[in-house]
Design a protein that fits this description.
Hypothetical Protein Mth938, Chain: A; alpha+beta
Length: 173
């Protein structure tokens, strides 16, 4: 079988897209890297191919009310996680400065494989973190760091190349 991009598989098989993950039931050796005409893929022991770049995008610039994120663009507040991110809309979970970041705000980060979560409290530390959120993360053995915005960016960017890290960024107060 020849995959798009010219990669040849040793056995005939089938390709299926299951919940956004390319599953190949063809006996690709575990740990083998393939290019399928797009992102680099790695074969797992269960024949699942995963993207080779699940690195968390770095924050390139930050100032009051403005952020620029690698591969995503510009905005005010962001949810970043292994393999991507998006703008953070507080209205989705009715987040406010108090009680602050809620469990519902971090669930998406965990769904993208985060093992470390950095929570920004904003430039003036006005954004709170609901204690139940910290309990939620601890119950799932997720390491968490809470910091002022600029310090949170430093921590997050430092971890982005080394760990499956996610962040909630609030770039104002």
């Amino acid at each position: 079988m020849v995959l798009p991009g010219g990669c040849r598989n040793q056995q005939a098989g089938r390709l299926a897209l299951l919940e956004g993950v390319l599953n190949v039931t063809t006996g690709v050796p575990s740990g083998k890297w393939l290019s399928a005409g797009g992102p680099v893929l790695r074969a797992e022991a269960d024949d699942t191919l995963v993207t080779g770049d699940l690195r968390s995008p770095k924050v390139l610039e930050v100032s009051w009310g403005h952020m620029k994120v690698e591969g995503i663009g510009e905005g005010k507040d962001f949810k970043l996680y292994p393999g991507g991110g998006r703008e953070w809309d507080w209205d989705e979970t009715r987040t406010g400065h108090s009680p602050g970041i809620q469990s519902a705000d971090v669930e998406e980060l965990l769904a993208h494989g985060a093992e470390v979560v950095v929570l920004s409290r904003g430039m003036y530390r006005r954004l709170q973190v609901d204690p139940r959120t910290l309990e939620f993360l601890a119950a799932r053995s997720v390491a968490v760091q809470v910091a002022e915005m600029r310090e949170a960016v430093r921590i997050y960017n430092d971890l982005a190349d080394r760990a499956p890290v996610a962040e909630l960024f609030h770039s104002t107060c």
